Request: fold
Amino acid sequence: MEGKMKSSWLGLFSLLLCLVGVIFSSTAEAAEETTKVMIHRIVFSGEQNADSAFNNNGQAIKEEELLGGRPLEGATFSVYDVSSRFYELTDTGLEKQEAQKKISEEADQAAEKNELSNYTKVAENQTGKDGIVTFELANYHSGSLGKVYLFMETSVPEQVAYKASNIVVGLPYAAIGSDNILHLYPKNQQQFRRPFFYKYGRQSTDPAEDQKLAGAEFRVYKELAGKTYYLHKDKYNNNNAWVEDETDEGILQVVSDQNGLVELAEYILPAGTYFFEETKAPEGYEITADSRKVKIEIPASFSEPIRVTVGSISSSMNESKVINLKKTDVPPAEPNEPDGPTTGRLPSTAGTSSVSKAARNLPQTGMQQAGSLILLGVILVILAVSIIRKRNHTEEGQ
Reply:
């Protein structure tokens, strides 16, 4: 009996050991399936170290190495799964770093156009008083293929003039911190934006019939201290170059595409006021006064929209409309009527004519008057001859 009891207890103990092993094994596997990512948002007073970048090696940075920055509370970070786009780019031969940069640039453009809803958002949260926000993210995209995430600051408190740069990270991360947390420190960057607006052609008085117009050419300029400077197509030290000579052949020309979109491709602008000047309208259209000075206002805060002013109408970029008017056909001028009689002969024309022969042979007015005078003269001569003969005949009779 005792032997059977011992066997039962040993069996139950072994079963418990197995269950504990399975539980710990499952927990370990679950831990490897996700990574804890901690975003540290640091800001600086004024423009001090505004463009400073931290060494993002996955490790936590000591407070004395924060370059005098302070934690920012209330910054919203959104996390997007960009794995498919990343592998799509690398499959074309693009290097990983280049693919990460392109994804970041595409996201900025999508944000300007309010198209971030097209991205797959997996998490969103705000930083606390310590400037930290934490996300628990899955490691794998498909099989052993790792996930790739875009971390994007989508809003900041009003007093902050600089936004955090985008970070594109692939998981699982090899150089994770000793605390099993991936620490990321976004770079503070000045507000560089990529403005755009839409070009339309108008053929009637009904704005609803306006059509998107391709082929309109613009140049970009800014006004500073009473002078005008034009954006040059060649950059200087990777920054925008501006020239005062409006005849410079290197001035950047921006052309509207088939959707009527006018935007700066690889050129971005800091906060300030700029103007787009239309220099050439598409064939069949004419430039309006408003299209010669399209005002672009880029605010200091990234959370504020860019404003586009055309004439007296100010709107967001998505709602903007710059109009070209359709040229009207001018009828040919009527030939002037001659002031006096013409003596020249009319040229003959091929084919039949509906004008009668009699009409073609009608004498001119001057000729009719001359014929009447001659007839009158003949009558007077005959009358005079008759009178003379009659007088002579009377005298002979006497």
